[in-house]
């Protein structure tokens, strides 16, 4: 769930950043699932899903994504925000960044750590 890829400034149309086949996820508004506890461990974040009795460690990249999953932002908003933070303007790099963020959100949702709202 990590990426060394850089993003771009959000200067192009929003639909250009949606990886093929992920339009529904791009408009989802992820948030922490109920019962997920977080613990800071250096620059990582430990997530404990009490309902599943599982723990997951997020590296710095995945943590940055997690912290933006507030139920208000869409997945595309999250990609654009991280792209702005990285201050890059390469379209191809941003598309890869958006795809990596989509994959991370999908994995966190699959493991029950995030829920996806509209």
Describe this structure in words.
The longest helix has 20 residues, at 91-110. This protein has helices at residues 23-27, 60-68, 75-86, 91-110, and strands at residues 29-32, 36-41, 44-49, 54-58, 114-117. The chain is globular and about 40 Å long. It is built from four helices and five strands. A hairpin with a 2-residue loop joins strand 2 (36-41) and strand 3 (44-49). Helix 3 (75-86) crosses helix 4 (91-110). With 118 residues, it is an alpha+beta fold.
Keywords:
single chain, 118 residues, alpha+beta, three-stranded antiparallel beta sheet, two-stranded antiparallel ribbon, 4 helices, disordered N terminus
Outline of this structure?
The chain has 118 residues and is α+β, with helices and mostly antiparallel strands. It has helices at residues 23-27, 60-68, 75-86, 91-110, and strands spanning 29-32, 36-41, 44-49, 54-58, 114-117.
Q: Quaternary state, please?
A: single chain
* Largest sheet, spatial ordering of strands: 2-3-4
Largest sheet: 3 strands, antiparallel
What is the ordering of alpha helices and beta strands?
HEEEEHHHE
- Tally of contiguous helical segments: 4
Shape, principal axes of CA atoms: globular
Q: Alpha-carbon distance between the termini?
A: 23 Å
Number of strands: 5
Measured by DSSP, the beta-strand proportion falls in 15-25%
């Amino acid at each position: 769930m990590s990426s060394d890829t850089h993003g771009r400034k959000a200067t192009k149309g929003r639909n250009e950043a949606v990886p093929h086949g992920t339009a529904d996820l791009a408009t989802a508004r992820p948030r922490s699932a109920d019962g997920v506890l977080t613990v800071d461990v250096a620059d990582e974040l430990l997530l404990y899903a009490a309902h599943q009795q599982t723990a997951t460690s997020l590296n710095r990249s995945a943590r940055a994504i997690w912290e933006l999953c507030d139920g208000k932002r869409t997945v595309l908003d999250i990609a654009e925000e991280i792209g702005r933070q990285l201050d890059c303007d390469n379209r191809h790099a941003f598309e890869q960044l958006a795809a990596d963020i989509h994959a991370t959100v999908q994995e966190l949702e699959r493991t029950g750590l995030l829920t996806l709202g509209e």
